[in-house]
Amino acid sequence: MAHLTPTPVLEPGQDRTMILNMGPHHPSTHGVLRLILEIDGENIVRIMPDIGYLHTGIEKTCEAKFYQQVVPLTDRIDYLCPLTNNLCYVLAVEKLLGLEIPPKAQWMRVLLNELTRINSHLVWLGTHALDIGAMTVFLYCFREREDILRLFEMVSGQRMMTSYFRIGGLALEPPLGFFEKVQDFARRFPANVDEYENLLTGNPIWGMRTKGVARITAEDAVALGASGPTLRGSGVDFDLRRDMPYSGYENFKFKVPVSQDGDVFARYACRVAEMRESIAMVQQALDGMPQGPIKAVAPKVILPDREMMKTQMEALIYHFKIITEGFAVPAGEVYQAVESPRGEMGYYVVSDGTAKPYRVHMRAACLANLQLLPSMCEGRLLADVVAAIGSIDIVLGEIDR
Amino acid sequence: MALEPAITDLEQLKNHPAIAKLTAWNPAAVEGAKFDRDEITILVERSLIRDACILLRDDPDCPFNYLADITCVDWFPSEPRFEVVYHLLSIPNKERVRLKVRLEGSSPALDSVTPVWPSANYFEREVYDLFGVRFAGHPYLRRLLMPEDWEGHPLRKDYPVEGYR
Question: In this predicted complex, what is the ipTM?
Answer without folding.
Answer: 0.91
